[in-house]
Structures are given as C-alpha cells and as structure tokens.
C-alpha cells in the first residue's frame, strides 16, 4: 500500500448528506471493534485489509481482520498509551492513511512528544502532485465539518468530546479538566463552526448554554451522538458530530473535497 496522498482543493461549496464521510470515531476496545460500514467499505474499495494510523510525526500499519484491528494494533496501543476505554478520531487522507486524534477516558486529547496539529491536506496535495503527476489515481468526493486545510491550535486549548444527552437539551456539560480551558470567565462565548456555518454559543457554569438548543435542533442531534470539538483558537472550535455507529453526520453546509489514492 502506497503512503502518499493528496486532496483536491475543490471545496467550500454546499454538499448533500449522500456524500460519504471521511471522519470516523472508534472505541479502543482490545478486540472485536464494531467498525462502521463506511469504514469497512473503504477497505473493500481499495482491495486491501491494511491501514496506516498516523499520529503526528509517526505512523503504524494495522491489519484489519474479521471486523477488528489485529496485527500492529497492540504495538500502536503500547506506543501511544492507548487504553481500553479511549477513543480515536480517524480522518481519511487517502491510500487508507488515517490521521488520528487520540482521546483518553477523560474525553480530552492525549498529547505525546510526536503529536503535531492535523496536517493541511491541501498543502500536502501540492507537494504530492509534483512527485506523482504520472501515477494513476482514483478519487472520491467526501464531506466533513472539518475543512481539509484546517489549522488546529494546540497552544491555547485542546480537543475534547462530549456525548449528547437528550435529557438536557438546553445545555451541554463541558468535560472535567476541560473547564481549565473553557469556562464562563475565560471564554464567556465560543464560536462553533460546522462546515461553512458558525454559531456563537454562550458559556455559563461550565456548560455550553446560550443558543445551544438552536444548535442541536439545526444539527438534528440525537441521544448518544458524539460531538468532537477541535480548536482553531482559544474561543473558536470546529465541531464534528458522529452518529451512534461512529460515522460523521453530513449536512448541506459542510465542506466537500476530493481524496485521492493510488489506483
């Protein structure tokens, strides 16, 4: 399996929910993962049962067998201190290479010496095109709340996730330990981006509160769906919403772009 990738800059226009997602959320149980159908379809389309998990400056090859991660998974978990109840966000970058954001059980990103911000896929496309201009490729148009040239900020805040509870629709609790970065005094308002749409959310008593109910109605949030918040700055986040199978939900205002793999 080749390790180069590229992404087309044909994005920033309205899409529709029929486009496939490129982001997935997986629970890190030791064996027998329930992999989303879309995730397994990617392997079938590439006629390959091996993927690459890339965490910052390092990467690991993983064999997928019988709906679970097998060869290479134990080494990945050991090197990245992945525990049984951790969660991985996987963003497909082409050629079955997935950039990883690793969350611990406390629902916040795990930062290791080789952790760096998510790569700018559009910039990488320019570099790759110079080297692979004569290489046959296949392309797939995908959609995501996260734009391909997203600039992740690791200095002033941290990625975190929270599970939506329909019993408290008017607010969302900020996870423990995240309130050091997000609280009513330090960040009284957050700008939450989902694709090309932005919503200003008020923070009160360690909860996302003002305008939150409108946000959940517009994004059709269902009980037990997961929201992942990726920081652009101290008070600006992009939110990705995952259904209960671990596939990112797609809305008409999301970014669309092409992912390329070697044919």
TrEMBL record:
<keyword id="KW-0238">DNA-binding</keyword>
<keyword id="KW-0804">Transcription</keyword>
<dbReference type="InterPro" id="IPR050655">
    <property type="entry name" value="Plant_B3_domain"/>
</dbReference>
<dbReference type="InterPro" id="IPR015300">
    <property type="entry name" value="DNA-bd_pseudobarrel_sf"/>
</dbReference>
<keyword id="KW-0805">Transcription regulation</keyword>
<keyword id="KW-0539">Nucleus</keyword>
<protein>
    <submittedName>
        <fullName>B3 domain-containing protein REM8-like isoform X8</fullName>
    </submittedName>
</protein>
């Amino acid at each position: 399996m080749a390790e180069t990738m590229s992404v087309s800059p044909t994005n920033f226009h309205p899409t529709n929910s029929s486009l496939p997602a490129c982001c997935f959320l997986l629970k890190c149980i030791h064996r027998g993962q329930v992999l989303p159908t879309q995730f397994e379809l990617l392997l079938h389309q590439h006629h390959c049962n091996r993927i690459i998990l890339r965490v910052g400056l390092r990467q690991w090859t993983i064999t997928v067998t019988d709906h679970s991660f097998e060869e290479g998974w134990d080494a990945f978990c050991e090197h990245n201190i992945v525990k049984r109840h951790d969660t991985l966000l996987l963003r497909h970058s082409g050629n079955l290479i997935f950039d990883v954001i690793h969350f611990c059980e406390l629902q916040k990103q795990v930062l290791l010496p080789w952790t760096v911000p998510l790569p700018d896929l559009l910039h990488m496309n320019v570099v790759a095109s110079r080297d692979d201009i004569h290489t046959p490729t296949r392309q797939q148009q995908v959609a995501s709340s996260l734009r391909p040239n997203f600039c992740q900020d690791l200095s002033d805040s941290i990625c975190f996730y929270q599970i939506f509870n329909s019993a408290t629709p008017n607010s969302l609790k900020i996870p423990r330990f995240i309130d050091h970065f997000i609280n009513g005094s330090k960040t009284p308002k957050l700008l939450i981006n989902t694709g090309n749409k932005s919503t200003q959310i008020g923070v009160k008593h360690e909860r996302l509160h003002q305008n939150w109910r409108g946000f959940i109605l517009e994004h059709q949030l269902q009980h037990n769906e997961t929201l992942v918040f990726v920081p652009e700055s101290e008070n600006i986040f992009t939110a990705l919403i995952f259904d209960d199978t671990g596939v990112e939900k797609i809305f008409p205002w999301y970014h669309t772009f092409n992912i390329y793999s070697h044919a």
